[in-house]
């Protein structure tokens, strides 16, 4: 693997990328830096944060590099979004055969720019209101999500990378996370 390439808005994914770089000896670059440091087509591991179910920067990274594996970083404990649904169906792989992982990042509303804060506000508000309305019937997980959306939370943990580090050591890998042409039937 030539490099770890990441996109991060509030720092959780960046911290995971830097920890992974330290543990594997593979250098980490932001997607922007990678544009200057890596050649097109290089083999990379991509890490991107989840925004409304899609992985930020993944499309640009797919256009430019050969993505052998990717980590999706979101706020929920169990993972979500289209790509993670593919991984659950395919036993940890994208439809195109690249290895996928999910990492719980966190939620830091104070670090969000105006645009993303405005995007997040209605979603966060609706989760909090729904959980309040459910009262005693709300599950522990629902309560935890409401708490995170109200006060923020940081779930970045070194151990969460263990499985990815093992996968790096098993290399080389030949699967690829790439767009699969869809057939409408
Ligand atoms: C506009 C917006 C939409 C988001 N959508 C999702 C989502 O669909 N699923 C999820 O698990 N987390 C979602 N998140 C939470 C981020 O993925 C989470 O905060 C992540 O850790 C951010 O990584 P970063 O600190 O590297 O930017 C969203 C955050 C924002 C600001």
From TrEMBL:
UniProt name for this protein: Flavodoxin domain-containing protein
Gene source species: Dysosmobacter welbionis
InterPro entries given in the database record: Flavodoxin_CS, Flavoprotein-like_sf
GO MF assignments: electron transfer activity; FMN binding
């Amino acid at each position: 693997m030539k490099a770890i390439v990441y996109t991060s808005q509030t720092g959780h994914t960046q911290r995971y990328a830097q920890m992974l770089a330290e543990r594997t000896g593979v250098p980490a670059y932001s997607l922007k830096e990678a544009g200057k440091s890596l050649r097109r087509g290089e083999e990379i591991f991509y890490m991107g944060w989840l925004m409304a179910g899609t992985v930020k920067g993944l499309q640009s990274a797919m256009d430019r590099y050969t993505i052998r594996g990717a980590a999706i970083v979101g706020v929920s404990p169990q993972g979500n979004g289209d790509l993670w649904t593919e991984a659950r169906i395919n036993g940890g792989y994208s439809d195109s055969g690249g290895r996928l992982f999910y990492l719980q990042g966190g939620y830091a509303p104070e670090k969000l720019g105006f645009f993303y804060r405005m995007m997040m506000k209605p979603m966060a508000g609706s989760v909090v209101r729904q959980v309040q309305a459910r009262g005693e019937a709300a599950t522990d997980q629902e309560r935890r999500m409401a708490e995170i959306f109200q006060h923020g939370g940081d779930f970045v943990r070194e151990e969460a990378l263990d499985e990815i580090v093992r996968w790096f050591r098993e290399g080389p890998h030949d699967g690829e996370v790439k767009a699969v042409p869809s057939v409408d039937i």
